[in-house]
């Protein structure tokens, strides 16, 4: 008998180890290059099947109405795909969330939640969609969703949907939440956003990792100058953490991170973080914790 629930499903955060804006398409979408890094800190989802066909988020998330939640929207797309494939309605779903990741933090929280929900419900429904199909389903909802469905760290291009698997260093990160939510649209629409950074190659990033004496991170985050100008707490966090290493913003902000070679080093800096900010440490991951539930379909390079 197929299971009726999956509890304690991890939805990990991501960090952008660098983020370059290379241009802008005619439809307004920006062309990006980035390296996505998974870390072992995030939200947790609990999924239960219902006897009807309703898709419900049973946890209140302040500022995010249920109808607008990426989880609900993604599962309704999966529901429609199930009907097309199997010719019948699947059971309904209740999704509860233990929310840890802040909104507007650049950590991919909403996208990660949606991806984990898709993985879990695809399994519970025995819907049969493979990795590539789930990624295509999630892309219209958000460019980060395909990465979390991809299942491992990646060098990404285009609008974020062209991914190549990448081994990244095992390390620890300290992440600071400066207490502001940065709206992505405000950053990408800014007149002073750099949109012409020269494209790099995945080999450039890999070669950088081999230079052990170079502790400065690869590239930069082109969104950071705009975010630090518009949101002074982000600038303050970058400056404070920068005294301990190569601190930079993830995504469009607001969270700021720095890599450390050991948990001890990361926790030593964590102990001194000003109390006005939220902060936590996390270990780097090479694969998504839900990777085992992803079917083999879809090529990982």
Outline of this structure?
The chain has 301 residues and is α+β, with helices and mostly antiparallel strands.
Describe the structure in your own words.
There is one protein chain. With 301 residues, the chain is of the alpha+beta class. It has one domain (1-301): Ribosomal Protein S5, domain 2, CATH 3.30.230. Helix content is 28%, strand content 27%. The chain has 9 helices and 10 strands. It has helices spanning 70-86, 109-124, 131-138, 145-150, 184-188, 202-209, 224-230, 232-241, 263-270; strands at 5-24, 30-50, 55-57, 92-98, 154-158, 162-165, 172-177, 248-249, 256-260, 278-285. A hairpin with a 3-residue loop joins strand 5 and strand 6. Helix 1 (70-86) runs parallel beside helix 2. The radius of gyration is 19 Å and the shape is globular. It starts with a strand and ends in a 16-residue tail after the last strand. Residues 296-301 have low confidence and may be disordered.
Radius of gyration, taken over Cα atoms and rounded to an integer in Å: 19 Å
Stretches where pLDDT is under 50 for at least 5 consecutive residues are: 296-301
Number of beta-strand segments: 10
Largest sheet: 10 strands, mixed
Order of helices and strands: EEEHEHHHEEEHHHHEEHE
Task: Give the helix/strand layout.
Layout: E1 5-24, E2 30-50, E3 55-57, H1 70-86, E4 92-98, H2 109-124, H3 131-138, H4 145-150, E5 154-158, E6 162-165, E7 172-177, H5 184-188, H6 202-209, H7 224-230, H8 232-241, E8 248-249, E9 256-260, H9 263-270, E10 278-285
Parallel strand pairs: 3-4
Antiparallel strand pairs: 1-2, 2-4, 2-5, 2-10, 5-6, 7-9, 7-10, 8-9
């Amino acid at each position: 008998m197929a299971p009726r629930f999956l509890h304690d499903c991890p939805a990990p955060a991501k960090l952008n180890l660098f983020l370059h804006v290379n241009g802008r398409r005619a439809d307004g979408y920006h062309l990006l290059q980035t390296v996505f890094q998974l870390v072992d800190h995030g939200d947790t989802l609990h999924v239960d099947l219902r006897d009807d066909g309703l898709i419900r988020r049973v946890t209140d998330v302040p500022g995010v109405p249920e109808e607008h939640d990426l989880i609900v929207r993604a599962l309704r797309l999966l529901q429609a795909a199930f009907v097309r494939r199997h010719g019948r309605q699947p059971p309904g779903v209740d999704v509860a969330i233990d929310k840890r990741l802040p909104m507007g933090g650049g950590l991919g929280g909403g996208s990660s939640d949606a991806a984990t929900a898709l993985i879990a419900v695809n399994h519970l429904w025995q819907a049969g969609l493979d990795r590539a199909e789930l990624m295509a389903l999630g892309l219209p909802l958000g460019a980060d969703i395909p990465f979390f469905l991809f299942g491992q760290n990646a060098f990404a291009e285009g609008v974020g949907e062209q991914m190549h698997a990448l081994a990244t260093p095992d390390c620890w990160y300290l992440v600071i939440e400066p207490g502001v939510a940065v709206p992505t649209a405000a950053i990408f629409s800014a007149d002073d956003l750099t949109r012409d950074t020269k494209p790099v190659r995945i080999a450039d990033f890999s070669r950088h990792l081999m230079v052990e004496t170079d502790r400065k991170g690869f590239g930069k985050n082109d969104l950071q100058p705009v975010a630090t100008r518009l949101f002074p707490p982000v600038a303050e966090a970058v400056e404070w953490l920068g005294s301990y290493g190569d601190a930079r913003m993830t995504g469009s902000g607001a969270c700021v991170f720095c890599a450390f070679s050991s948990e001890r080093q990361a926790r030593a800096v964590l102990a001194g973080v000003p109390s006005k900010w939220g902060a936590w440490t996390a270990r780097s991951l090479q694969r998504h914790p839900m990777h085992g539930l992803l079917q083999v379909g879809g090529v990982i390079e």
